[in-house]
Amino acid sequence: MRVEDAEPISAAFERIGWHRPAESYLRYVAQAQAGDRVCVLAESGDEFAGYGTLLWRSNYPPFRRDRVPEINDLNVLPQYRRQGVGSALLDALEAAAGQRSKTVGLGVGLHAGYGAAQRLYVARGYRPDGRGVMYDDEPVEPGATIAIDNDATLMFTLSL
What we know:
Layout: H1 6-14, H2 22-33, E1 37-44, E2 47-55, H3 61-66, E3 70-76, H4 85-98, E4 103-109, H5 115-123, E5 127-135, E6 138-139, E7 152-159
Parallel strand pairs: 3-4
Antiparallel strand pairs: 1-2, 2-3, 4-7, 5-6, 5-7
């Protein structure tokens, strides 16, 4: 991912109704240049198809404590799903993680919008970390009420 990719990525997601400002991707580029994040892009022909990133220092306390890199913010445009794009992105991110760790982690949302990702991660051998539902990287206590939005996740790990 380069600075010049930020606007086209943002525009591609805007066309499908996902508002993600170019500044988000510029931040990813800066973090990659600083060595804090790995960013990979996928293309189909000359068209942007998706991206994924790997955080070397996760915001999720158990991953951070155990130095488990986290695949963070993996997105494939709907028209490129079920064509191997997500798997190719994961291959690249898992290979990067494997240079520093024997384990990689990720979080996946709980609502149906994450259904394709949930199936993909399980098919690749990711397993829940056993800590239950998280909200904004913090445990949800039994009996608590939370919004099932993009911040409600289940965390997974994969042995590399």
